[in-house]
Amino acid sequence: MATVFGLPMVKLGGLVIRTLTKPLAKVVKSRSKIHPGLNAVCHKLGQGQHRVMIKFHMGFRGIQSYTIKDLPEDQAVEKGADLIGELLIFSVAVAVASYEYTRSSAKNKETERRAEEAKRKAEQELEDRFEKLEMQVIWLEGKLAELGHIVEHDLETRIGEAAGEAAVQQIERDLQRFESRRRRHDALRQQERPQTQPEGARVSVKLTESSLSVTTSGVAGPVEGDSAAAGVGGVVASAWGLTYSAIAGLFR
């Protein structure tokens, strides 16, 4: 809004119009004495104002019967001109006040409209931000779920690798223990070998003796065939028993 000396132009214009109304009322009063039509109007207005004022005065005093005399023409014209001047000043003041009120109401409505528009815009921006944040939250949830699957798969892989490594290490430890036991067993066998005759030699000797007896029995004739067969079966059984004992001794 344009301002002059810090005052709004509208209020300054209303103040100027009000100020100019008083000289205009004086002009109307002075012209009423010269202009015939204006003089007649002022005369009627003056007489009417005089009658109304007398009626109000008598009514307030409670007097019912009275007679109203007309004013002299010059006094009636003067009162009419004064009334026109006052009405003119009042009309201008009412017009200026109405204009200022209308303008203020329009300004208030415009301010309210702008405030409502700003509020609606802020709400829309807030809603857009919420929607954007919601989309970001959904995207982050998807990323977190994806990362969770990746971490879970990685953990499963690492656990499997760790379990495999532990199993391999356990197997290596078992192999090392078995190898140490086997070496100790070989060392014990090496220590026991010079002192003890291997049972295999005794078995071979017994087998040789048995074979000799079997051969001799075979030469003796068919009468002794059954006893020879029984002797061979016993020798074979004893040989298998000695072999089993020797193998079992290796793993003690």
Structure description:
By secondary structure, this protein is an all-alpha fold. The chain has a domain at 3-136. It has five helices and two strands. A two-stranded antiparallel ribbon has the order 1-2. The longest helix is centred in the middle third of the chain and has 120 residues, at 73-192. Residues 196-230 have low confidence and may be disordered.
Write a short abstract of this structure.
The chain is an all-alpha fold and 252 residues long. 86% of the residues lie in helices and 2% in strands.
Topology at a glance:
Blueprint: E1 3-4, E2 7-8, H1 9-31, H2 36-61, H3 73-192, H4 199-220, H5 225-250
Antiparallel strand pairs: 1-2
Round the mean pLDDT to the nearest integer and report it: 74
Task: Determine the N-to-C terminus distance.
Answer: 116 Å
> Tell me about the biggest sheet?
2 strands, antiparallel
Order of helices and strands: EEHHHHH
Task: List key phrases describing it.
two-stranded antiparallel ribbon
